[in-house]
């Protein structure tokens, strides 16, 4: 039963990835026109999400995501089984009642999910936001840690 739940999560993570890629395709196709018109729309655009680097250090998985302009209050991180989801929203920052002459840095909303390559210990997970880069350190579960195997001569 637990195995089915994991497959269910992976199916949603794959559908989320497909949706993200399709959003990126349409976002890229619309980008030149959006920059020419100045994009004065105040509503948050849904983007494919930040560029992410996921790597394995042996004892931990590290995720680095570029999310400039967001604070820790704008970011949500969840871990369900082996699916990590990072979502966030940057709201319009022009004061109410002011006239905007040019706006290239609009409101955005994103959500990205990743199926992690190994089990992690959620209690030992840390997230640090510094200079617009979110760094998640997900320590691997004990059974997923690399092990040294002693060699004996006979």
UniProtKB/TrEMBL annotation:
InterPro entries, sorted: A-crystallin/Hsp20_dom (IPR002068), CS_dom (IPR007052), HSP20-like_chaperone (IPR008978), Small_HSP (IPR031107)
UniProt xrefs under Pfam families: HSP20
Record-annotated SHSP domain positions: 43-154
Domain CS: 47-152
Family according to the record: Belongs to the small heat shock protein (HSP20) family.
Protein name as annotated: Hsp20/alpha crystallin family protein
Source organism of the structure: Sorangium atrum
């Amino acid at each position: 039963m637990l195995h089915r739940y994991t497959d269910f999560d992976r199916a949603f993570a794959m559908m989320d990835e497909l949706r993200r890629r399709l959003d990126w395709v349409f976002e890229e196709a619309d980008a030149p026109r959006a920059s020419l018109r100045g994009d004065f729309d105040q509503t948050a655009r849904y983007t494919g999400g930040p560029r992410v680097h996921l790597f394995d250090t042996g004892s931990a998985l590290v995720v680095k995501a570029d999310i400039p302009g967001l604070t820790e209050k704008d970011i949500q991180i969840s871990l369900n089984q082996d699916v990590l989801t990072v979502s966030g929203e940057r709201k319009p920052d022009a004061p109410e009642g002011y006239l905007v002459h040019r706006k290239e840095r609009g409101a955005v909303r994103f959500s990205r999910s990743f199926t992690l390559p190994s089990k992690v210990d959620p209690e030992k997970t840390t997230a640090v936001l510094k200079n617009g880069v979110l760094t998640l350190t997900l320590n691997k579960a004990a059974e997923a840690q690399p092990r040294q195997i002693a060699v004996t001569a006979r």
